[in-house]
Automatic annotation (TrEMBL):
GO terms for biological process: phenylacetate catabolic process. GO terms for molecular function: phenylacetyl-CoA 1,2-epoxidase activity. It comes from Agromyces protaetiae. Signal peptide: none annotated. This is 1,2-phenylacetyl-CoA epoxidase subunit A. One of its GO terms (cellular component) is cytosol. The lineage of its organism: Bacteria, Bacillati, Actinomycetota, Actinomycetes, Micrococcales.
Length: 325
């Protein structure tokens, strides 16, 4: 019968789908060579590459302060932190490559403006205290988001996250420590620290994404065990972590409605102003243009390094084949 091959393929896919579903059900890992549904692959490519782009673009607001850090010690710490973010980008790009997209394609998507990255990195960093607020709040939010991703169902992603999370906790502590020291300083230093916390608090809460009832893709990602907790659950957990730390430092979280709710065993908070988030997402944030311009320039300026590396690899391969003495 003419339809036999199609039917056979269908049976094969159904079996493969079943095997995939069972792996997910048993909380086991999907590995690059395993069969996976197209939509799962596409979702992961999008999520992991966006995550990688965020690490790479995220180097800019802080890289900007390396030469101006107030002491040699702070300079060394900040440099190490920014370098870690480059490493995170590389782990993530490598994880995305196992799904069949090339590094070149991802880079093109980023510099052409087609790919998204976390809009938090489109805000500017006018003072040294912003380094503290970014570490404490932005890396802090990243940790809340990323710790559950260590158990993501896709093996290479989960394993990359384990390494990343270890470094993120150092990032958060260094931010906390910058703010702590400023808060123990002069009146002007305390004001600078508080102003930076005011600037970064709401954008950091927005990093968890839209509220659950407006986040249509979340349910599928949770069913696939890529995502383990909803946006609102993670946001709530983050605020719960910040409150006692803010008390230790003596900074005020800029939300007059922030209050412990005994019944819910969670903090009540003001609604988030999402119009700002959508503006930044639409490319109208304070530094969108600048971030992409600098990334594009760095990519072009680095062309000779990529060419030299490719040429070196080619020669090594030739040598291994015995073509060149
Ligand atoms: Fe990172
Ligand atoms: Fe970080």
């Amino acid at each position: 019968m003419m339809t036999a091959p199609a039917e056979l393929t269908l049976v094969g896919d159904e079996e493969a789908q079943q095997a995939f579903d069972e792996l997910i059900e048993r909380d086991q890992r999907i590995e690059p060579r395993d069969w996976m549904p197209d939509a799962y692959r596409k979702t992961l490519i999008r999520q992991i590459s966006q995550h990688g782009h965020s690490e790479i673009i995220g180097m800019q607001p802080e890289g900007n302060w390396i030469t101006r850090a107030p002491s040699l010690k702070r300079k060394a710490i900040l440099m190490a932190k920014v370098q870690d973010e480059a490493g995170h980008g590389l782990y993530l790009y490598s994880a995305a490559q196992t799904l069949g997209i090339s590094r070149e394609e991802m880079m093109q998507q980023l510099i052409s403006g087609k790919a998204k990255y976390s809009s938090i990195f489109n805000y500017t960093t006018p003072t040294w205290a912003d380094m503290g607020a970014i570490g404490w709040l932005v890396d802090g939010a990243a940790i809340c988001n990323q710790v559950p991703l260590c158990r993501a169902s896709y093996g290479p992603y989960g394993r990359a996250m384990v390494r990343i999370c270890k470094e993120e906790s150092f990032h958060q502590r260094q931010g906390f420590e910058i703010l702590l020291e400023l808060m123990a300083g002069t009146e002007a230093q305390r004001e600078m620290a508080q102003a930076a916390v005011n600037r970064w608090y709401w954008p950091a809460l927005m990093m968890f994404g839209p509220p659950d009832d407006e986040s249509p893709n979340s349910a599928q990602s949770m069913a696939w065990k890529i995502k383990r907790f909803s946006n609102d659950e993670l946001r709530q957990r983050f605020v719960g972590m910040l409150v006692p730390q803010a008390e230790v430092m003596g900074v005020t979280l800029p939300d007059p409605n922030l209050k412990w709710n005994e019944e819910r065993q969670a903090y009540d908070m003001s609604p988030i102003d999402w119009t700002e988030f959508h503006e930044v997402l639409a490319g109208r944030g304070p530094a969108n243009h600048e971030r992409l311009r600098r990334r594009r320039e760095a990519h072009e300026a680095g062309a000779w390094v990529r060419e030299a590396a490719a040429e070196y690899a080619r020669k090594q391969a030739e040598r291994a084949e015995g073509k060149v003495a």
